[in-house]
Amino acid sequence: MSAPSAGQPIIILKEGTERSRGRDARGNNLLAARIVAQAIKTSLGPKGMDKMLVDSFGDVTITNDGATMLKEMDVQHPAAKMMVEISKTQDDEVGDGTTSVVVLAGELIGKAEELMSKQIHPTVVIDGYRQAQDEALKVLDQIAITVDPEDRSMLKRVAMTTMASKLVSSHSDFLGDIAVDAILQIAEESDGGWAVDLDMVKMEKKPGGSMTDTELIRGLIIDKEVVHADMPKLVRDAKIALLNAAMEIEKTEFDSKIQIETPEEMQAYLDQEEQMLRDMVTKVKDAGITVLLCQKGIDDMVQHFLAREGILAARRLKKSDIEALAKATGASVVTSVDELSSEDAGFAAVVEERKIGDDKMIFVEGCDNPKAVGLLIRGGTERIVDEAERSLHDALSVIKDVVEEPKVVAGGGAPEVEVARQLRDFAERLTGRERLAVAAFAEALEVIPVTLAENAGMDPIDALAEMQSKHAEGGVWYGVNGLDGVVSDMAELDVYEPVSVKVQALKSATEAATMLLKIDDVIAASRMEAPPGPPGGGMGGMGGMGGMGGMPPGMPPM
Ligand SMILES: Nc1ncnc2c1ncn2[C@@H]1O[C@H](COP(=O)(O)OP(=O)(O)OP(=O)(O)O)[C@@H](O)[C@H]1O
Ligand SMILES: [Mg+2]
């Protein structure tokens, strides 16, 4: 960037830096964000479509999950990336609503652009949006239904609503029960309420069988085999040792030579080695260990000796598995065999190797701490189990949301229509120009029911009009019955969602929209890895949209 000063340009920014200002900068950002929202709109709701994404290595993902779609799309434009981020935040905070939040943010931006084209200043829009958000949160709180956090049937309904829009929807009844069982097992009482640590649910996937073979294990599943054929495959009342060291003879780090001159010396050397390995096994045995789970390798000879002692062992476990096992069984992780003692051991009622499909896995059940569960996910193909895992994650998350904050709203766009209606009343009472922004905010909320109607093949304008008139008569839960393609009372249909999902979506979408509205200057340094194209250049800048054929991040320019 340069500015003429007495004939001499003053260079302020580095060569190659691009800058766009004012309307241009804002326009490009808003366009990019809206394009992202547009791209995932068709996947909202029970009749929403799935997307197939192919990454630059040719790996295929099929999903309906907003956060996953956006992550795999490998979006490049900075404003578009913000949409990816809000979707990820939604996923981290509440686990569901990752499509809705982006669709909503896109619509808020669209409505803001309309206002700005009528010469309303962005700061007025921002103020109006903030007021509208506060009011909307109040309305949501008023209409939300308080439920019993231990009411299984309500928890299951919430889980089933979440899975209604996924590939697994036909099994949502079966999977809903499993998800509720899992969460109720790990929920812990904490100052008057409940707390759920989702890390205590460990999911393992094995393609093969059918989705209905998916099972809940009251313990942990480890995707490893027992190392030696002669070891027991089942140990009851197991004393478990967790070892973060190799059961091998360490190689020296420096080059060394041993001069062996006679066969006797050779034999003595081998005997010595064998003795060291035997000593390791003796240590394990003396500590009373019956199951040895090792994060590193186990020497063949050690395996043989362990088998002779009737000890079950597995090697090269994942660090995360070792950590989960430590929590579940009460064992402490030992970093050297020499330090192993019986106090370090953990306990489980059963440790067993079972055959799952063509593979073998180790099941650790009846642990000391019952607040750890495993979910073994089965299904036709790898892509199906992958998507089933994502859907179960959503289901577990919404159950957790309700257990922790026991308030729900009905779905199908009903809460959005109701909040919009009350926001319009609120706007009527305002005097400044902000009222226009509040009204625009209300209209933007209706994108959810409108999109649900569109995706269900209904006429969106008729559907919205019908819902609005029902709401005006006091039918708070009238929304789009996506499956039958009519407007119905969603509470009667048992379509419920956690209120926290709606609250988070409202907050994140408003935040993202107002943040983008505030930007009037984009200064982009010339980028090494980006393909040529103007930064901040709307579509042009979204080089990675679609993710196909794009370069993986961090690759040098070709
Ligand atoms: N049976 C149903 N009839 C009508 N609408 C439904 C039904 N079940 C769910 N919905 C609605 O579908 C919407 C959720 O759709 P979807 O699960 O595809 O997106 P999301 O939750 O925003 O994002 P994601 O699940 O990808 O994180 C919610 O508004 C919900 O109320
Ligand atoms: Mg969902």
Notes on the structure:
By secondary structure, the chain is α+β, with helices and mostly antiparallel strands. 45% of the residues lie in helices and 19% in strands. The chain contains 16 helices and 23 strands. The chain has helices spanning 22-41, 66-73, 78-93, 98-117, 122-143, 152-164, 172-186, 263-286, 300-308, 319-329, 382-404, 414-429, 434-445, 447-455, 460-472, 499-518; strands spanning 2-5, 8-11, 18-21, 51-54, 60-63, 145-146, 188-190, 193-195, 201-207, 215-217, 219-222, 234-243, 291-294, 312-314, 333-334, 346-356, 359-367, 373-379, 407-410, 478-481, 486-489, 496-498, 521-524. Strands 11, 12, 13, 14, 15, 16 and 17 form a seven-stranded mixed beta sheet that branches. β16 and β17 form a beta hairpin. α12 packs antiparallel against α13 and α12 packs across α15. The longest helix has 24 residues, at 263-286. It is globular, with a radius of gyration of 29 Å. Residues 533-558 have low confidence and may be disordered. It binds adenosine-5'-triphosphate and magnesium ion. Adenosine-5'-triphosphate is lined by residues 43-46, 48, 64-66, 96-100, 161, 164-165, 394, 411-413, 448, 452, 480-483, 495, 497.
Helix content: 40-55%
Q: What's the total count of β strands?
A: 23
Mean pLDDT: 88
Structural class: alpha+beta
- Shape descriptor reads globular
Bound molecules: adenosine-5'-triphosphate, magnesium ion
**Percent strand:** 15-25%
Oligomeric state of this protein:
single chain
The rounded distance between the terminal residues' Cα atoms is 27 Å
**Total helical elements:** 16
Question: Compute the gyration radius: what is it?
Answer: 29 Å
**Largest sheet, strands/sense/barrel:** 7 strands, mixed
The stretches of 5 or more residues where confidence is low (pLDDT under 50) are 533-558
